[in-house]
Amino acid sequence: MERKGLKPTFVDNQEGNTLSSAIKRHLKELRDEGQTPDELWISTAYFNPSGLQSIAKETQHVGKVKLLLGAEPTPESMRPVRQPGDPHEPELTNRVVVRALKELIDGLKRDRDYLPFDLETDRAVKTLLEFLASDKIEVRRYEGNFLHAKAFIFRGDNRGLVSGSSNLTYAGMNTNLELNLGHYGDPLVGQVETWFEDLWERAVPFDLSALYNEMLLEVMPYMVYLRVLFELYGEEIELEQDDDGEIPVTSFQKHGRFRAERILEKYGGVLIADGVGLGKTFIAGDLIRKYRDNRQRVLLICPASLRDSEWQKFLNKYQLLVDCVGYEQLANDVQFVGEDGKEHLNNSIDDYSLVVVDEAHNYRNPDTPTRAAILRQLLQGKRRDIVFLTATPVNNSLWDLYHLLRFFLKQDASLSDLGIRSIRSRFNEAMGEDPFNLNPDMLYPIIDATTVKRTRKFIKKHYANDTIPGPDGKPQLIRFPKPHALTINYSLDNVLPNFFDKFRDYLMPSSGVPLLTMARYKPEMYPKGKKYNTRDTAIVGLLRSIMLKRFESSAYAFRS
Predict the structure, then answer these.
(1) Which residues contact 394 (CB under 8 A, 6 or more apart)?
(2) What pLDDT does residue 98 have?
């Protein structure tokens, strides 16, 4: 408890008996009696602004403050043992002291950088800087040896000191369990004053204000933005190396591969969802090359039509030895269905280090036994990296994306280091929002952590002068054709008057049986000897949807 009217003699930071309150109370009582100390001398091995701020209310009335900083000695258990070739004493200790002084500066900077970003801290730092800029405080640092002593010496008519274990930090002055004893008017005070004066004369001036002035420097918002980007992606940029291989890739494809590798290393899987025509095949091929060069086996899973066309040509051209199977082949392999299956895989599933799935949106339904269930079985056991390729990871709802990511984000808290405690809860929250007003920040951290996704607009803006090796080996500038929509107006009324009205009546008359049934185009609706099966019509609709999606992707995909 605080002891009003008594000089602080025993201070342990317990039950309100804190060093900060004891010093403030003592200085105020001296000031009230007209005996304000001429000077306050402080010796401390460590310092932070909040420590000085905790007694600043009264120290500002003192004539002058002398602050002597030192360096904490290294604990005995951590002190370096002299090795052959190391200097003898005292040079060895001097070397350790120099390192400790540097660590002191680094510690002060670290503490400064981790100060809260709020108004209270801002005011505290400004108060400190105003105090340091005045002629009422002088700061020096003792560099001749370790300085572990902590003391508060009151100079003037009413001399005294408080000495013990507390550093001039907020914790040392308020919360740590410490022991500090006070002495007043006895010969011991004079001896301590002499001790301080001797160290002060041998200490060197120390610009403490320079350390904290940086906090108040005005920085342009754009520089803050760049710094945030560097903290997020700086390590990625530094790790990227130019390692051109035999597969010709553009800069943006190479950067996509770099990013995919980093995601693979961290999570064991990645979703490559670049837009149509941006070369997901080449990014995957470059990844496959890296695994091949490391003598690791790769399994490629894709639709049968792509297996026998684009992928077969690509793998042969760049001599990528992988096992390439279609969806149905994988589902019917003996390693999954037993003796009822066939041997489509050339190796044991445990031998594959990388699995690449093209048109991965076909695996978005977690309940399909021949797709998702087989893939989950494939990914069991020892770690196998997986790469999903699709330009349309979301077809029906955001759950499509969720189910793809869960193939490699197997724990719901896999992204807890990003502040996402539950991936499923985050998707639930997103699904509850209006899709047209969905806040991008809701799912962006998940997508950014797991996905390589660039649009054609992004590539055109940020890789405007990118090149790719042409047939002759010379670099060619990449150009994206600019679409020009042509509008053609025409009328059939003069050639075929009332044709469409009649055609509508033939197909969908207001009453009676249609005159035009177009039966030859849907014979399944007229089965001979059995009832009409609505399931057949549903299949026709599904096939029509598939063909339209291929046409939407590209004319080449539609033709194949």
Answers:
(1) 400, 401
(2) 78
